[in-house]
Amino acid sequence: MSVLRSFFIWLLLALLASSSVLADARSFWSRQDDPATIQRQQLPLEAQETLALIERGGPFPYRRDGVEFQNREHRLPQQTRGYYREFTVPTPGAQDRGARRIVAGEQRDYYYTPDHYRSFKRIAP
């Protein structure tokens, strides 16, 4: 096999591998910027009640409700600092706040996380 042919085969394989890596990266970031959607009636009852409290403006049962959510994990669409606020969704049987939260955006966009920010679902309007 000629050196030139070997080079072109190597180049083709490298391009195929890199396009696969790029596709995986695009897929990863699109998942982060476009969480799956959940209907309000599919949320746990406690999350539905928390969402109703948020929409009414409180009062909220937990001291940390309404604090800024900084989106450090980049799992929600990027927004300006201060755009998101987080609220506790009570977890039956938990001795503390538990892992469930609703994150609210300034434009009335809401996200539910059952696992303390590891995953999110956008709550359908």
Describe the structure.
With 125 residues, the protein is α+β, with helices and mostly antiparallel strands. The chain has two domains: 1-33; 37-123, Nuclear Transport Factor 2, Chain: A (Roll), CATH 3.10.450. The protein contains two helices and six strands, in the order αβαβββββ. A hairpin with a 7-residue loop joins β5 (110-113) and β6 (121-123). The model is unreliable at 18-33 (pLDDT under 50). The termini are far apart. The chain has a six-stranded mixed beta sheet, covered by helices on one side. The protein is elongated.
Q: Notable features of this structure?
A:
elongated, Nuclear Transport Factor 2, Chain: A, alpha+beta, 2 domains, 125 residues, 6-stranded mixed β-sheet
Compact description:
The chain is an alpha+beta fold. The chain is built from 2 helices and 6 strands; from the N terminus they run H-E-H-E-E-E-E-E.
